[in-house]
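Weekly puzzle thread! Below is a chain. First person to post its structure in token form gets bragging rights.
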Amino acid sequence: MIETINTLPATTAPKQRRASSPAQAGAIGRGLINLTLMILTIRDIRQRSDDEINGRRKLWMLAAFTPPIGPIAYFIFGRKRGTQTVEIPLEITE
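Winning reply:
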């Protein structure tokens, strides 16, 4: 008769994380900048009216998803200057 013995695998030490290289850190930094620009662009497009945007809103939304050129182009060419209204309260309550 053949007898089988169940053995548990030996415990291994946890793998140590390697430090990220400067190239990886740069890629992560660029990715975070691109993501931030994209979020700010989409948020700005959604908050503005059609009169405050040069061109079509849908095209600028598509441009927002082509980082980094699209968001930068929107902030330079897509927004009309001097059309944003500022609300000033008539009464000061303390």
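Puzzle host: Confirmed. Bonus trivia for everyone else. The mean pLDDT is 84.
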